[in-house]
Design goal:
309 residues, 11-stranded mixed beta sheet, 23% helix
Length: 309
């Protein structure tokens, strides 16, 4: 891992009918967050929400001797990156009396999850009833709430700045230089990076799943171990409204990223891409001697290939 500067992951996930991240809406209307492209609305899940889902996925799988603090009533965390996985990986801003604020930039960058198909063509409005008991009686009353839901294929990704995991920037005021100073040992650093990668395969704490259960883990995933820090891999997957893969872009981005990536891992389940596209991807990766497995196997292989060497 000494030669690696960054790890990038980008994936597609197909959802069932669901609402993963509500917009502002009104008291009796729960909408879906949307963005516009060429005047057409598409659903998305905010980067803030995706960070929360990833953080909770990591928290669920901690060992007894591992620690992730919880923000206090002011939203501030402990700020101790040597012992706290949360503060190390996801950053923080905490106030110090008489000194102002101490800020740590997260070494884990998370993109919003963007829906690739238009919302109007893949959505529905359903209603649920919120029932409550009338004061001093057994009579029940109910409020009807309308909920926007949709099916879609979402694209999402993360980038890990490996040099800054478990490390702080140390500034030499005299020389006007900055160095990275490790606060944890190499084994602990690898352990934390593994938790990030594994966490993607177990994301489950997204909103409104008590009534709208769906799976949001990767169905098609690419992971790159890079000796240059770059986000280029995030543009690998592009689908048009017919669900067809942009093959030229896939090939071009793969060629670029391969030049500064020590290892590439791919995982895919059948049925996500059109048959022609799936066959083309498998043939191209075979030609380049890149193995393609299931998403879970690709994640497991990436974790197994992390070492201090």
């Amino acid at each position: 891992m000494n030669e690696l500067k960054g790890i990038n992951m980008v994936w597609l996930s197909e959802t069932d009918l669901t609402n993963l991240n509500a917009g502002e809406g009104e008291s009796n209307y729960i909408d879906v967050k949307k963005y516009k492209k060429n005047g057409i609305e598409y659903p998305y899940v905010s980067g803030q929400a995706m960070r929360f889902y990833l953080r909770e996925s990591i928290r669920r799988n901690l060992n007894e001797n591992e620690y992730m603090c919880i923000p206090d009533d002011k939203g501030e965390t402990c700020g101790d990156i040597s012992k706290c996985i949360n503060c190390d990986l996801f950053g923080f801003m905490t106030t110090v009396k008489g000194k102002g604020a101490i800020t740590r930039v997260s070494p884990v960058k998370v993109s919003p999850a963007i829906g690739l198909f238009s919302f109007d063509e893949n959505s529905n409005v359903d209603f649920l009833t919120r029932r409550h008991r009338v004061t001093e009686g057994t009579k029940m009353e109910g409020d009807i709430v309308n909920v926007e839901m949709g099916t879609n294929i979402y694209k999402d990704g993360i980038s890990i700045d490996l040099l800054r995991v478990g490390a702080e920037e140390k500034i030499d005021d005299e020389k006007r230089t900055a160095d990275i100073e490790d606060k944890i040992n190499a084994d602990e650093k690898i352990s934390r990076v593994k938790k990030i990668i594994e966490g993607i395969g177990f994301i489950s704490d997204y909103s409104k799943q008590a009534r709208l259960l769906t799976d949001f883990t990767p169905d098609l995933i690419a992971i790159s171990f890079q000796n240059t820090y770059s986000h280029r891999l995030q543009k690998l997957f592009e689908l048009n409204e017919e669900g067809e893969l942009n093959k030229e872009r896939f090939k071009e981005i793969l060629e670029e990223v391969s030049k500064y990536s020590d290892k590439l891992f791919f995982g895919m389940i059948s049925g996500l891409l059109k048959d022609e596209d799936e066959n083309w991807v498998r043939a191209l990766l075979k030609e380049k001697e890149i193995g393609i497995k299931t998403p879970k196997e690709a994640i497991d292989d990436a974790v197994a290939n992390l070492s201090t060497e």
